[in-house]
Specification:
2 copies of one chain form a homodimer. Chain A is an all-alpha fold. Chain A folds into 2 domains: about 60 residues, Multidrug-efflux Transporter Regulator, Chain: A, Domain 2 (Orthogonal Bundle); about 80 residues, no CATH class. In chain A, about 15% of the residues are buried. At the A-B interface, helix 3 and helix 5 of A face helix 3 and helix 5 of B. Chain A binds a DNA duplex through helix 2.
DNA sequence: CCTCATCCTTACGTTCACGTCAACTTCACA
DNA sequence: TGTGAAGTTGACGTGAACGTAAGGATGAGG
């Protein structure tokens, strides 16, 4: 059985797959951005699953798009971390509805927090985009005027 | 005659108006992000017009929204710089239409470059926003299910 | 089993984007 | 005309986010 989904990746592979370096991965782990993968079977080498690669990419993506510090990002991801735990707990059927509700509300709060950040930035960017488009429109119009008078 | 529009601002005033520090302003000037205001009447103090404040705010805004290094930002603003010069030159009527055309095309190129950057980021952010909204939707649904079974 | 690429930790180095301090000059105002 | 706040140019300091080098352990292929 060598089906896909259970390959054990080494840190160098992960780095290449995510487009970064081993150093950065260790650094993120040190900061708590990535789980400290306490599984170091026999040797001290870190091993990763493809899911971990996705997680890393997501971290890099958020860093890029939200433009926050790694510390702030850590807080934002604590949210995601919590959501993972929540999902795990919610999987089981035997959770008190009261507890379920609490967990879901908590998850919602985390998501809303991220959404707020994202929407704020998105709005600002949209505004900037509109301004640029408008300016470009004016330039184009002037070019057309010019063409009308003295065509190439 | 003390009408608005010709107040001479000092670097500290500018800093407060733009929400930053004198140090940053000097640093930006040193990097070439702000024009080196060669006008230092008698004393060596920098003087600014309200327009310069706007310029500074714009720089800060772009830095924040585009998340680029100050060097890259400088290149992007060389564009804007050029546009300012272009606008000045275009104001005059006695410019060869050929030259006008050239200037306008150049300006258009600069704008398009900025637009490309902005639209790329905006698209990425929009994608992220959609994902978050979708996730939130699922959470909400689960909450509604819960409410239906065991209302508060 | 040997070897060599890859990994480990530790630690110091580097770049960016400023902060801060020193020594001095200039401006605003009583 | 003094005097305190604000400005000037160096210069060095700093936090974030890694890069890089040292010295040694580990793992995969021949």
């Amino acid at each position: 059985m060598s089906g896909p989904g259970n390959e054990a990746l080494r840190i160098g592979d992960v780095a290449k797959l995510a487009g970064t370096t081993p150093r950065t991965i260790r650094y993120y782990e040190e900061l708590g951005l990535l789980p400290q993968a306490p599984e170091r079977p026999s040797g001290g080498h870190r091993l990763y699953s493809p899911e971990e690669v996705e997680r890393l990419r997501e971290v890099m993506r958020l860093k890029e798009l939200l433009g926050v510090s790694l510390q702030e990002l850590k807080d934002l991801l604590a949210a995601e971390e919590a959501r993972a735990a929540v999902r795990a707990e919610l999987q089981r059927e035997d959770v008190h509805p009261e507890r379920r509700r609490e967990l879901l509300l908590q998850a919602q709060g985390h998501i809303d927090r991220q959404l707020e950040l994202v929407e704020h930035r998105a709005a600002e960017l949209a505004k900037l985009r509109e301004e640029l488009l408008s300016t470009r429109g004016r330039v184009r119009e002037r070019l057309r005027e010019l063409d009308a008078l003295a065509p190439a």
